[in-house]
Amino acid sequence: MGVVYHGNYAQFFELGRTEWLRSIGITYKSMESSGIMLPVISINFKFIKSALYDDVLTITTFLKKKPMVKIEFDYEITNQNNELICTGNSVLAFINSKTNKPIKCPDYLLESLGY
Q1: How many domains, in total, are found in the chain?
Q2: DSSP run (H or E) holding 60
């Protein structure tokens, strides 16, 4: 059909999250090495316009509020013409990888965010 498959947008959001974390000096790998997992517990998309093959997409990621046991992100995806393609939201939980129990947001992340 010449358009990007809708299932790919979850991967676009993940790229936005991982790069957002990297921009504040934190990687998923470092979090996992310290015993923290961040599974997605909800994800929502609002498709506004189809992205076409070969479009250059920009994913802008916003932190919605101070993370506690969960962290919530909002997203905007635009194309090379700065047209809004998709908006969305995801919520992830901080989980201790040994106990599989929820934990509070690590202090180092809060400090990186200025809290």
Answers
A1: 1
A2: strand 58-63
